[in-house]
Design goal:
This protein is of the alpha/beta class. It has one domain: TIM Barrel (Alpha-Beta Barrel), CATH 3.20.20. It is 40% helix and 14% strand. It contains nine helices and eight strands. The longest helix has 17 residues. It is globular, with a radius of gyration of 16 Å.
Length: 207
């Protein structure tokens, strides 16, 4: 019953992250979306995602887990080398509410040793007010307008595409995941979603 609040964050949730970017303003050159991928880079998913994006001529923003970026620096270089942007997703994929502010900030700083970016997305979208205030001094905190839920084993690829079709609007920041957990759905859902978005006339932009 609460799933629909995951796919598009409600207004009360958006108010918990003042200054966070949930949706971009309408662009003068036509309706646009900002495609993002969380949790990589990993060899089981990221290279395939990059090939699909190349096939459709789409650029995206990858919010990387620092530990993965440390482990697979060649994949980080591949992402940026193909013209995509990267962002910080903490070093250990921390939920901000479960750790102290100092521990969270240290984890973000550790990730920044491998991920050079002024963009940050908190894992699961949760962080404490003090964490947000401190991070906002150095980062643009990028949230989301559409969560595809490609990670859910309870959904099919068709369900993921249906989420994209149902919730996407001009300025939407859309979240997919370049992760092992998402690949069973992503292989079908990502190309189908891109084809639908292109068919609807959306342009793809990065931050």
């Amino acid at each position: 019953m609460l799933d629909r609040y995951i796919e598009r964050p409600p207004e009360w949730f958006r108010r918990l992250v003042p200054g966070g970017i949930f949706r971009m303003p309408p662009a003068p050159d036509g309706k646009s979306v900002w495609l993002t991928f969380d949790d990589g880079p990993v060899p089981e998913a990221t290279p395939w995602v990059l090939d699909i994006l190349d096939k459709y001529g789409v650029k995206a923003t990858f919010f990387m887990v620092g530990e993965n970026a440390r482990r697979y620096p060649e994949l980080l270089s591949e992402v940026t080398g193909r013209g995509h942007r990267i962002g910080n997703h903490t070093h250990h994929h921390l939920r901000g509410f479960r750790v102290t502010t100092s521990a969270y900030l240290e984890d973000v700083a550790e990730a920044s040793e491998y991920i050079e970016s002024d963009l940050l997305r908190p894992p699961h979208g949760w962080l404490k007010p003090g964490q947000l205030r401190a991070l906002s001094c150095d980062y643009r905190v990028v949230m989301y307008d559409v969560v595809t839920r490609d990670y859910s084993r309870h959904l099919s690829a068709e369900d993921v595409v249906a989420n994209v079709r149902r919730w996407t609007r001009d300025g939407s920041i859309i979240v997919f995941h370049d992760s092992v957990k998402s690949m069973p759905r992503l292989r079908e859902a990502l190309p189908a979603s891109l084809e639908w978005l292109i068919g609807e006339g959306y342009k793809f932009k990065t931050f």
